[in-house]
Each structure stands twice: as structure tokens, then as C-alpha cells.
Write a structure and sequence with these properties.
The complex is a heterodimer of chains A (about 280) and B (about 240). Chain A is α+β, with helices and mostly antiparallel strands and about 280 residues long. Chain A is about 50% helix and about 15% strand. Chain A contains 11 helices and 7 strands. In chain A, the strands form 2 sheets. In chain A, strands 2-3-1-4 form a 4-stranded antiparallel β-sheet. Chain A has a two-stranded antiparallel ribbon with strand order 6-7. In chain A, strand 6 and strand 7 form a beta hairpin. In chain A, helix 5 runs antiparallel to helix 10 and helix 7 packs across helix 9. Chain B is built from 9 helices and 7 strands; from the N terminus they run H-H-E-H-E-H-H-E-E-H-E-H-H-E-H-E. Chain B is an alpha/beta fold. The chains are: A alpha+beta (about 280), B alpha/beta (about 240). The interface between A and B is large, with 54 and 73 residues. Strand 5 of chain A pairs parallel with strand 7 of chain B, so a sheet runs across the interface.
Amino acid sequence: MPPSTRRRDRPRTNRQSQWQGQRQSRWQGWQREQRDDLSLSEAGHVLWKRRALVTGCMIFFLAVAVFYGLSREPVYTAEATLSVRSEEGIAPAGSFDEVLSGLRDSAAMQEIREGASEKAGWEASQADFNERLEVPEGVNNEELKVRFSAPTPEEAARGANAYAEVFVERVGELEGRLAGGAVAVNASVEKAAEPPERRSDRRRFLIPIVAGAGGLLVGGVWALFLEGRARQWSGSRDAELTLRAPVLGVIPDFSGNLASPDGVYPDGAFPDGASSDGGEG
Amino acid sequence: MNPEQVAGDARLPDAAGSGAEGNLGVMAAEGWSEHTRLVLKPGSEVGRSFAALAENLGSVGRSAGSLVITSPESGTGGTTVCLGLGAALAASGKRVAVVDCNLDRPHLHRSFGRPNFTGLTSALDGVGGAESYGFDVARNLRVIPTGPVLPGSWALLNSPKLVGAIRALEEQRDVVLLDAPVAGEVLATPNFWGSFNGVLLVVHATRTPKGVARGFTDALLDARFNLFGVVLNGHV
């Protein structure tokens, strides 16, 4: 049963009722406020007080992010544009689709990729080459944009162009094989890839920002945790913000003013159970 | 020592600083701990701090009636605050009584090197009010120890008889400062805390964990205590 309910149950004297009424009227705003949540001023006070910890956490996270960013290879992405068109009037109906389905075949796609890797002089694995290559899933009667990402602008352009060229060659081969050479599909490199001037890994700026914010958050949570366990009160402002109650007095530590007949009492060794700074009771 | 033994304007002995400028009318201080002497010395820095506390209480209209002084943990200096505040209020002309309500761990009498033969519990059993079982330590300042206690005596804190004894004391004194046990025990005695004007919470500047102090402040307010405010003791 909450204490307030218990109090209602017991009889009150007249005097008690009188001052209970006075008490209600004297109830201060700070006594009525919602106290469950951390107030902004309290959080600000704690963060400012432990700013060294919060800043340290943020710097650490930032340093890790910057180190990670620097240790990663740069990424340049080059783009080549292919054109795949049916030559209308010459090709029999459905023959263009036949060529396209031949290109969509996974074995054919892999063949093109392997050819491109070889042509570009890619020294790393084929899987690595495939990962860096971006080709749209479907091939239709439109433009086809091929992107290739590499650590240097030249390698990126070389990879994209190699794929485009092998693709065109492959279309030519299919054209000759299908329908006795009667299929006419015009595939060409419309725009060859140029070595890009700028890096394409924009996330390298995002990572330190996210890391900094994460460091701030971790440092803040840590600061609040430590503050809850701290036993050192820096003054009345600290006490007021922590307890959200008015501090009516600050009594200094006067242990230095107390002396035994032989000199200063050692801490905690006062007669009569008194502690060095008035810690009786 | 009874009120007739008041020496009036007696100065503090050398141990507390000779030639003390304080003119509280401190009684002969034989047997007092040095700590107590210093707290009751009004001219000292600590005396000025207690005077400021008394002034602040007065400025918010809380320097009359009965005041429960408690703390989140033991060892925060609640007794010191009771004595210092009592001395400051007494110096301003108010008639003050400091009552030791630590029925489990009485210690107010030790500060004055006195036995605990009579006190608050004597008033519950015997004749006469609590006032008559105390002793004056300065002009207008009377100290009432717990008196004889038994294990489990702290349950008396919740008894209407004890509340009545303190109420009777209020008739004779302008201010009654109740040196109460820790807040956890006070919370368990609603009859006690619900009967007086308000509560002052003492926290120690180097010992009280902030989380614990905050938890008790919240608990006191949740229980609808009239918490006047906080005293930060032992500030370095």
C-alpha cells in the first residue's frame, strides 16, 4: 500500500490537519514535477562535467573511423555505354529476342566476364572482377550501361571498356550462329569509359560522421552511468541538478580544523564516533 | 545539566579556538567532542555555513515547527547538521530542541560525553515531557538524547505516543529538529514523518553516491514528503 494511502486511513488531529493544509498550499513547483525522466539540463550538466570522457570517446571513435578509411583502398568507378539494337526490316520476327536470350544465359554472361577480365589484364581473381562489375540484369533494345570499380581511375576505365568490347564481340558471334546468319543485331560501344577524376566512395565522409556521433552517444551513456555511481559532489549546483531539489546549505569539510592533542586526527579516528568531516549520524 | 545551569555567554575552551567571537552562550564544554565544540562555535567558518542554512530555511518560511533531518545513508553528518542548524537558529533567538530519534543507534549524547540514561524514551514511559529529559548545550538550545533503548526500539518511531511527545515539545520550543535515522527507515514510519512540518535531506559531498541520493529524493517525494530541501555536508 503506498504511504499516501496509509496516511489517509489514520485519524488526524486538528493541528495535523491544519498544517497538512498549509503544506499543500506551500507545495513547491519542483516537488510536483515529473521526476522519472532525465531532464535536458541535468543531462547537459553531466555531459559538460564529464566532457573529457565524452570528448575522449568521440575522438577515439573518430580516430578508428579515419584509420579504417585510410586503410581502405580508394574506389574509382568508370562507366561505358553500349547500344544494342535490332536492324528492323532485315531480321526475321523473333530473332532479336533469340539473341538477347542467348546473352541472358548465365553461362554466356560468365564467358563475357571472363573474357573481359582477361582483356583488362585483371590480376586478381575472377570473383573479385565480378564483384567490381555492375551490369543491368536484363538486356533490352536500349542502351546498356556498364560500370566497373577499381582502385585506380585507369583500371576502372580499362575494366569497363574491356567488358563492353567483349560484349560486342559476343553479340557478333551469336548473330552469325543464329538463323544461318540472317539475324541482324547491331551492338556497339556508344561511349567508351573515361578514367574518372573523382573517387566514387562517398561513404568515406559518412563513416567518420557516424563514428563521431556514435562516440558521442557511447561517451554520454558512459558519463551518465559513472555519474550515477559517483560520490563526489562538486557543489550546490551539482546537487540541485542531480537531486532536482533546492540546496539550502553547503557545509564545508572542517576536518582540517580539528586537532588531537598530538596533532591532526587520522581520518575516521575521532572520538565519540564522529568522523573527520562531521560525518556523525 | 538542567536549564538553571546555563552559564550564559560562556566562551568555548581553548581546544576549539581561544577567544571565540561566538556569543552563543555555550555551556561548560567538558566531555564534549572537539567536533561538537567546533560545530557549536558560531564565529567559525562552519558556524557561518550553518547560519546561512538557517537563514535560507527562514527565507522560505521553514524555520519554525518540527523538522525531520534524515539522509540517504548513515555517516553523512545528519547529527552534525542538526546541532549546527540548531545552534544557528538558537543564536538568532529561537528556542530550539534537537531530538535524537536514532532509536537503533543513539549517538547524540556521545557528542557531549554524556550517558544516555534519560531522554525521549523516558518521556514515553515516565512522567513529564521530553523537554525535561534533555539538557541545555547553549542558550535556547536543548538537546534530548534517545534515552535507554532496546534492540528493535526503532519501531517506537512509528508510535503515536512518540509523535505526541514531540508535539508536546513543539509547544515549548519554536523549532524542533529531529535527528532521524536514514531515509529508508524513515520511509517505513509514515506515522512519524507524516506528523511533522517537513524533511531536510543531508547528503555528504564525498560519500553519498549520487544515484542513491537521487533515488531517495524521488522516493521521499513520491511518498508525498514535504521535502524542504537538501544540505550538502563535508564539501571540499
